[in-house]
Amino acid sequence: MSCADSWPPQRGQPTDHPSSPSGSDRESGPGAARGPRARRSRIRGVTASVLVVCSGNICRSPVVEAMLRGRLAGSALPSEVSSAGTIDWNARPMADNSALVLTEYGIDAPAHRSRKLTADLLRAADLVIGMSREHHWAIDALAADALPRTFLLGELVRLGEAFGPRRALPLADWVAGVDARRPANRLARPGDELDDPMGEPIESFRVMGARADDLTTRLAALLTT
């Protein structure tokens, strides 16, 4: 039996996840434009809001966003997948090589403009997925209350597979169970990172794309089975 089969603990049982945010914590902070809908999803399970974060929001996060959105579309987990970057690059389009990688996987590169990560976006998200440990630190500085539901992509898949598939669990409970498997400082391993191909030849983008393809496929399976 996986950990997911017995999470959350029954009333009166101890829990090994004292750091899970309470309902009141989840509702705190000003709402972004998509905030009300996303906050309802954390409480009522209407539509899951997944936010993918990288540095410039032009290379890695648009690829992961498009791949994950396609794999969750029409699944048992209604979702809204979006992305943002820790650096404000003034609404730049997706990097040409990232768009090319998507087409090589049979995914139409969406019309995309980079946007800056904000505390409102973080607080509105049910699940936040970073690419590198520096993104974890940036998220901590912007909205520390989002950390219990913030993971690096590789970390989320690694710990999620150890915890077990979501099955019928509400997304918030599954995320809390995966979070409980982390060390107290919530620092991911270097191997959990998705390397930034910015400024590198197309081969580096293809390496990034292959890993993103593998990890988003495994993550979608965890979230929808």
UniProtKB/TrEMBL annotation:
InterPro entries: LMW_PTPase, Ptyr_pPase, Ptyr_pPase_sf
Coiled-coil blocks: none
Entry-linked SMART domains: LMWPc
MF terms (GO), sorted A to Z: protein tyrosine phosphatase activity
SUPFAM superfamilies according to UniProt: Phosphotyrosine protein phosphatases I
Protein name per Swiss-Prot or TrEMBL: protein-tyrosine-phosphatase
EC number: 3.1.3.48
Pfam families given in the database record: LMWPc
Lineage, uppermost ranks: Bacteria, Bacillati, Actinomycetota, Actinomycetes, Kitasatosporales
Biased composition (Polar residues): 12-23
